[in-house]
Specification:
alpha/beta
Length: 299
Protein backbone atom coordinates (compact mmCIF):
# COMPACT_ATOMS: atom_id res chain seq x y z
CA UNK A 1 0.00 0.00 0.00
CA UNK A 2 1.35 3.40 -0.96
CA UNK A 3 0.91 5.73 1.99
CA UNK A 4 2.26 9.00 3.36
CA UNK A 5 1.45 8.66 7.08
CA UNK A 6 0.78 5.02 7.94
CA UNK A 7 -0.94 4.19 11.20
CA UNK A 8 0.95 0.88 11.27
CA UNK A 9 4.21 -0.16 9.68
CA UNK A 10 5.93 -3.53 9.78
CA UNK A 11 9.37 -4.19 8.33
CA UNK A 12 10.60 -7.75 8.12
CA UNK A 13 8.37 -8.66 11.07
CA UNK A 14 8.89 -12.27 12.14
CA UNK A 15 7.31 -13.87 15.18
CA UNK A 16 8.18 -17.34 16.45
CA UNK A 17 6.77 -19.36 19.33
CA UNK A 18 9.31 -22.08 19.97
CA UNK A 19 9.51 -24.02 16.71
CA UNK A 20 6.35 -22.45 15.31
CA UNK A 21 6.68 -19.37 13.08
CA UNK A 22 3.45 -17.37 13.22
CA UNK A 23 4.62 -14.41 11.07
CA UNK A 24 7.33 -14.60 8.42
CA UNK A 25 9.11 -11.49 7.17
CA UNK A 26 5.94 -9.38 7.07
CA UNK A 27 6.37 -5.89 5.61
CA UNK A 28 3.25 -3.71 5.52
CA UNK A 29 2.17 -0.09 5.70
CA UNK A 30 -1.47 0.50 6.62
CA UNK A 31 -3.09 3.92 6.33
CA UNK A 32 -6.43 5.58 6.02
CA UNK A 33 -9.01 6.67 5.86
CA UNK A 34 -9.85 3.15 4.73
CA UNK A 35 -11.35 -0.19 5.71
CA UNK A 36 -8.82 -2.99 5.35
CA UNK A 37 -9.89 -6.61 5.17
CA UNK A 38 -7.38 -8.89 6.91
CA UNK A 39 -8.07 -12.36 5.56
CA UNK A 40 -6.41 -15.75 5.67
CA UNK A 41 -6.94 -19.37 6.59
CA UNK A 42 -6.92 -20.57 10.20
CA UNK A 43 -3.47 -20.16 11.78
CA UNK A 44 -2.36 -17.83 8.99
CA UNK A 45 -1.17 -15.18 11.48
CA UNK A 46 -4.08 -12.71 11.46
CA UNK A 47 -4.63 -12.49 15.22
CA UNK A 48 -0.88 -12.51 15.84
CA UNK A 49 -0.52 -9.50 13.54
CA UNK A 50 -3.34 -7.64 15.31
CA UNK A 51 -1.69 -8.31 18.67
CA UNK A 52 1.58 -6.86 17.32
CA UNK A 53 -0.19 -3.69 16.22
CA UNK A 54 -1.16 -2.91 19.83
CA UNK A 55 2.08 -4.19 21.38
CA UNK A 56 0.58 -7.25 23.08
CA UNK A 57 3.23 -9.25 21.26
CA UNK A 58 6.62 -8.04 20.06
CA UNK A 59 8.58 -9.17 17.02
CA UNK A 60 11.18 -11.91 17.31
CA UNK A 61 12.91 -10.18 14.39
CA UNK A 62 12.14 -7.06 12.41
CA UNK A 63 10.28 -4.00 13.53
CA UNK A 64 6.77 -2.60 13.97
CA UNK A 65 5.46 0.93 14.56
CA UNK A 66 1.92 2.03 15.44
CA UNK A 67 0.84 5.66 15.19
CA UNK A 68 4.48 6.57 14.62
CA UNK A 69 5.78 4.83 17.76
CA UNK A 70 7.69 1.56 18.05
CA UNK A 71 5.22 -1.00 19.41
CA UNK A 72 7.45 -1.75 22.41
CA UNK A 73 7.08 1.90 23.47
CA UNK A 74 3.33 2.47 23.09
CA UNK A 75 1.81 4.53 25.89
CA UNK A 76 -1.55 5.95 26.90
CA UNK A 77 -1.33 8.69 24.27
CA UNK A 78 -1.37 6.05 21.52
CA UNK A 79 -3.79 3.62 23.19
CA UNK A 80 -6.32 6.45 23.58
CA UNK A 81 -6.39 6.67 19.77
CA UNK A 82 -7.02 2.95 19.19
CA UNK A 83 -10.25 0.94 19.39
CA UNK A 84 -10.15 -2.86 19.60
CA UNK A 85 -12.85 -5.53 19.33
CA UNK A 86 -11.20 -8.86 20.25
CA UNK A 87 -12.53 -12.29 19.34
CA UNK A 88 -13.52 -12.93 22.96
CA UNK A 89 -14.47 -9.67 24.72
CA UNK A 90 -14.06 -9.50 28.50
CA UNK A 91 -15.70 -6.97 30.82
CA UNK A 92 -16.36 -6.47 34.53
CA UNK A 93 -19.18 -8.90 35.28
CA UNK A 94 -20.82 -7.07 38.20
CA UNK A 95 -21.27 -3.81 36.29
CA UNK A 96 -24.16 -2.85 34.06
CA UNK A 97 -23.50 -2.01 30.42
CA UNK A 98 -23.81 1.71 31.20
CA UNK A 99 -21.51 1.49 34.21
CA UNK A 100 -18.90 -0.39 32.18
CA UNK A 101 -18.95 2.28 29.49
CA UNK A 102 -18.75 5.13 32.02
CA UNK A 103 -15.75 3.42 33.59
CA UNK A 104 -14.01 3.07 30.23
CA UNK A 105 -14.76 6.67 29.29
CA UNK A 106 -12.26 7.88 31.91
CA UNK A 107 -9.38 6.52 29.82
CA UNK A 108 -10.30 8.30 26.58
CA UNK A 109 -10.07 12.10 26.29
CA UNK A 110 -12.18 12.07 23.12
CA UNK A 111 -14.99 9.92 24.56
CA UNK A 112 -18.33 10.97 23.05
CA UNK A 113 -21.47 10.26 25.11
CA UNK A 114 -23.61 11.21 22.13
CA UNK A 115 -22.01 8.50 20.05
CA UNK A 116 -22.36 6.10 22.99
CA UNK A 117 -26.13 6.63 23.06
CA UNK A 118 -26.35 6.35 19.28
CA UNK A 119 -24.42 3.06 19.19
CA UNK A 120 -26.40 1.50 22.03
CA UNK A 121 -29.59 2.26 20.14
CA UNK A 122 -28.23 1.15 16.78
CA UNK A 123 -26.99 -2.18 18.13
CA UNK A 124 -30.06 -2.70 20.34
CA UNK A 125 -28.09 -2.92 23.58
CA UNK A 126 -29.72 -1.90 26.88
CA UNK A 127 -27.48 0.26 29.11
CA UNK A 128 -29.22 -1.16 32.19
CA UNK A 129 -28.43 -4.79 31.35
CA UNK A 130 -26.01 -6.60 33.65
CA UNK A 131 -22.76 -7.55 31.96
CA UNK A 132 -22.82 -11.00 33.61
CA UNK A 133 -26.11 -11.79 31.90
CA UNK A 134 -25.14 -10.76 28.37
CA UNK A 135 -25.18 -13.30 25.57
CA UNK A 136 -22.13 -13.81 23.40
CA UNK A 137 -23.64 -11.58 20.74
CA UNK A 138 -24.44 -8.82 23.25
CA UNK A 139 -20.90 -8.96 24.62
CA UNK A 140 -19.70 -8.42 21.07
CA UNK A 141 -22.04 -5.43 20.75
CA UNK A 142 -20.66 -3.97 23.98
CA UNK A 143 -17.10 -4.40 22.67
CA UNK A 144 -18.05 -2.55 19.48
CA UNK A 145 -19.56 0.36 21.43
CA UNK A 146 -16.51 0.55 23.71
CA UNK A 147 -14.16 0.53 20.72
CA UNK A 148 -15.85 3.34 18.79
CA UNK A 149 -17.07 5.91 21.35
CA UNK A 150 -13.77 7.80 21.52
CA UNK A 151 -13.40 8.58 17.79
CA UNK A 152 -10.32 6.35 17.36
CA UNK A 153 -7.83 6.89 14.57
CA UNK A 154 -7.18 3.14 14.32
CA UNK A 155 -9.80 0.42 14.84
CA UNK A 156 -8.93 -3.29 15.01
CA UNK A 157 -11.81 -5.74 14.65
CA UNK A 158 -11.11 -9.47 15.13
CA UNK A 159 -14.10 -11.45 13.78
CA UNK A 160 -16.49 -8.64 14.81
CA UNK A 161 -19.68 -9.95 13.17
CA UNK A 162 -19.44 -13.65 13.99
CA UNK A 163 -22.08 -13.52 16.75
CA UNK A 164 -24.32 -10.74 15.47
CA UNK A 165 -27.75 -11.42 14.00
CA UNK A 166 -28.19 -10.52 10.30
CA UNK A 167 -30.03 -7.22 10.93
CA UNK A 168 -27.50 -5.88 13.45
CA UNK A 169 -24.63 -7.22 11.33
CA UNK A 170 -25.83 -5.19 8.36
CA UNK A 171 -26.20 -2.07 10.52
CA UNK A 172 -22.71 -2.53 11.91
CA UNK A 173 -21.05 -2.93 8.52
CA UNK A 174 -22.77 0.23 7.26
CA UNK A 175 -21.66 1.97 10.46
CA UNK A 176 -18.02 1.28 9.59
CA UNK A 177 -18.38 3.32 6.41
CA UNK A 178 -19.78 6.20 8.45
CA UNK A 179 -16.91 5.96 10.97
CA UNK A 180 -14.34 6.19 8.18
CA UNK A 181 -16.02 9.29 6.76
CA UNK A 182 -16.65 10.99 10.11
CA UNK A 183 -13.37 10.21 11.89
CA UNK A 184 -10.99 9.60 8.96
CA UNK A 185 -10.14 6.33 10.69
CA UNK A 186 -8.21 3.31 9.50
CA UNK A 187 -10.27 0.20 10.25
CA UNK A 188 -8.78 -3.29 10.05
CA UNK A 189 -11.37 -6.07 9.91
CA UNK A 190 -10.16 -9.63 10.37
CA UNK A 191 -12.89 -12.02 9.28
CA UNK A 192 -13.65 -15.40 7.76
CA UNK A 193 -17.08 -14.17 6.63
CA UNK A 194 -15.82 -12.81 3.32
CA UNK A 195 -19.20 -12.16 1.72
CA UNK A 196 -20.09 -9.88 4.64
CA UNK A 197 -17.00 -7.69 4.54
CA UNK A 198 -16.67 -7.49 0.75
CA UNK A 199 -19.15 -4.62 0.45
CA UNK A 200 -17.31 -2.69 3.16
CA UNK A 201 -13.55 -3.09 2.69
CA UNK A 202 -11.52 -1.22 0.08
CA UNK A 203 -8.13 -2.86 0.72
CA UNK A 204 -7.14 -6.49 1.24
CA UNK A 205 -4.23 -7.92 3.20
CA UNK A 206 -4.17 -11.70 2.81
CA UNK A 207 -1.90 -13.79 5.03
CA UNK A 208 -0.97 -17.40 4.40
CA UNK A 209 1.25 -19.40 6.76
CA UNK A 210 2.43 -16.12 8.27
CA UNK A 211 3.43 -14.55 4.95
CA UNK A 212 1.78 -11.72 3.01
CA UNK A 213 0.04 -13.38 0.05
CA UNK A 214 -1.69 -10.17 -1.13
CA UNK A 215 -1.60 -6.49 -0.19
CA UNK A 216 -3.66 -4.46 -2.65
CA UNK A 217 -6.87 -2.56 -3.28
CA UNK A 218 -9.84 -4.91 -3.58
CA UNK A 219 -10.84 -3.39 -6.94
CA UNK A 220 -7.32 -3.99 -8.28
CA UNK A 221 -7.43 -7.63 -7.18
CA UNK A 222 -10.78 -8.08 -8.89
CA UNK A 223 -9.35 -6.57 -12.08
CA UNK A 224 -6.47 -9.08 -12.07
CA UNK A 225 -8.70 -12.15 -12.40
CA UNK A 226 -12.01 -13.05 -14.01
CA UNK A 227 -14.15 -16.11 -14.56
CA UNK A 228 -14.79 -17.48 -18.03
CA UNK A 229 -17.86 -19.65 -18.52
CA UNK A 230 -17.02 -21.61 -21.63
CA UNK A 231 -19.57 -23.37 -23.88
CA UNK A 232 -18.55 -25.47 -26.88
CA UNK A 233 -19.94 -24.34 -30.26
CA UNK A 234 -18.14 -26.03 -33.16
CA UNK A 235 -16.06 -28.74 -31.44
CA UNK A 236 -15.69 -30.59 -28.16
CA UNK A 237 -13.72 -28.93 -25.40
CA UNK A 238 -10.46 -30.51 -24.18
CA UNK A 239 -10.29 -32.34 -20.87
CA UNK A 240 -7.84 -29.69 -19.71
CA UNK A 241 -6.86 -26.22 -20.93
CA UNK A 242 -3.12 -25.56 -21.19
CA UNK A 243 -3.16 -21.79 -21.68
CA UNK A 244 -0.69 -20.15 -19.29
CA UNK A 245 -3.22 -17.51 -18.23
CA UNK A 246 -5.61 -20.14 -16.85
CA UNK A 247 -5.08 -20.37 -13.08
CA UNK A 248 -8.03 -22.59 -12.16
CA UNK A 249 -10.35 -24.76 -14.20
CA UNK A 250 -13.36 -26.99 -13.79
CA UNK A 251 -14.08 -28.78 -17.06
CA UNK A 252 -17.22 -30.78 -17.86
CA UNK A 253 -16.20 -32.37 -21.14
CA UNK A 254 -17.11 -32.19 -23.84
CA UNK A 255 -19.37 -29.14 -23.76
CA UNK A 256 -18.67 -26.74 -20.88
CA UNK A 257 -16.02 -25.41 -18.50
CA UNK A 258 -15.46 -22.72 -15.91
CA UNK A 259 -12.04 -21.10 -15.90
CA UNK A 260 -10.37 -18.49 -13.74
CA UNK A 261 -7.92 -16.47 -15.81
CA UNK A 262 -5.38 -13.70 -15.36
CA UNK A 263 -7.29 -10.95 -17.09
CA UNK A 264 -4.29 -8.96 -18.34
CA UNK A 265 -2.68 -12.03 -19.95
CA UNK A 266 -5.79 -13.55 -21.48
CA UNK A 267 -6.58 -13.19 -25.19
CA UNK A 268 -10.31 -13.85 -25.34
CA UNK A 269 -10.84 -13.69 -29.14
CA UNK A 270 -7.88 -16.02 -29.79
CA UNK A 271 -9.16 -18.45 -27.14
CA UNK A 272 -12.63 -18.53 -28.67
CA UNK A 273 -11.22 -19.20 -32.13
CA UNK A 274 -8.83 -21.88 -30.92
CA UNK A 275 -11.53 -23.83 -29.08
CA UNK A 276 -14.57 -23.03 -31.19
CA UNK A 277 -16.33 -21.85 -28.08
CA UNK A 278 -18.46 -19.06 -26.69
CA UNK A 279 -17.21 -17.39 -23.49
CA UNK A 280 -19.20 -15.43 -20.93
CA UNK A 281 -16.91 -13.26 -18.78
CA UNK A 282 -17.87 -12.63 -15.15
CA UNK A 283 -16.14 -10.89 -12.22
CA UNK A 284 -15.03 -12.82 -9.15
CA UNK A 285 -16.25 -12.02 -5.66
CA UNK A 286 -13.91 -12.02 -2.69
CA UNK A 287 -14.95 -15.55 -1.68
CA UNK A 288 -13.85 -16.84 -5.09
CA UNK A 289 -10.71 -14.68 -5.11
CA UNK A 290 -9.49 -15.91 -1.73
CA UNK A 291 -8.07 -19.34 -2.71
CA UNK A 292 -6.44 -17.76 -5.76
CA UNK A 293 -4.69 -15.14 -3.65
CA UNK A 294 -3.41 -17.86 -1.32
CA UNK A 295 -2.13 -19.93 -4.25
CA UNK A 296 -0.51 -16.92 -5.94
CA UNK A 297 1.23 -16.02 -2.71
CA UNK A 298 2.91 -19.44 -2.66
CA UNK A 299 4.29 -19.15 -6.19
Amino acid sequence: MTVSTPVFEASGLTKTFGEVTALRDVSLALAGPSIIGLIGRNASGKTTLLRHIVGLQLPTRGGARTLGVSTDRLEHEQFARIGVVPQTPSFIAWMSVGEQLRYLSRFYPRWDDGRRSFLLDLLELDADSAVRGLSTGSLQKLAIVAALCHHPDLVLLDEPVSNLDPIVRDRFLKLLLDIVQEDGATIVVSSHVLHDIESTVDWIVCLDAGRVAADAALDDLKDRFSEWRVEALTRDLPDRFDEAFVVRQAVKPPRSARLVVRTADADLPAFQRAHGADVDVAPLNLQALFPILVDQGRD
